[in-house]
Design brief:
This protein has a single domain (about 5-90), classed as Arc Repressor Mutant, subunit A (Orthogonal Bundle), CATH 1.10.10.10. Helix content is about 75%, strand content about 0%. It has helices spanning about 5-15, 20-30, 35-45, 50-75, 80-90. Helix 2 (about 20-30) crosses helix 4. The termini are far apart.
């Protein structure tokens, strides 16, 4: 069974691999290889402003891609179960409706 870190790492790798090439390259050079904006600009023969724009767009696309995963896997829990547990805890504390 995969550990949560390995699973999340794989999800992130997959999301990066799905980025359009022009955004993926800038993301990898800036965020993974830690090149400066100037060095990235030089390596790709594009303007520094384009590096910044592409990086921001890559991050936005990654957020969109990862948001669904986060909702489905990380923040997924059963609200009815949570409500039942909360009611039981409040009852044990002698609190009804959140008021003593």
């Amino acid at each position: 069974m995969n550990s949560p870190n390995k699973e999340l790492s794989q999800v992130l790798e997959d999301a990066i691999s799905r980025l359009p090439e022009k955004y993926r390259i800038v993301f990898v050079l800036r965020e993974i290889e830690e090149l400066s904006v100037r060095d990235t600009s030089s390596a790709l023969d594009i303007e520094e402003n384009n590096v910044k724009v592409r990086l921001n767009r890559a991050k936005a696309l990654l957020r969109e891609n990862l948001n669904a995963y986060m909702k489905d896997h990380v923040y997924h829990f059963h609200l009815t179960r949570c409500d039942r547990i909360t009611r039981n805890v409040l009852q044990k504390l002698g609190i009804e409706g959140g008021k003593p």
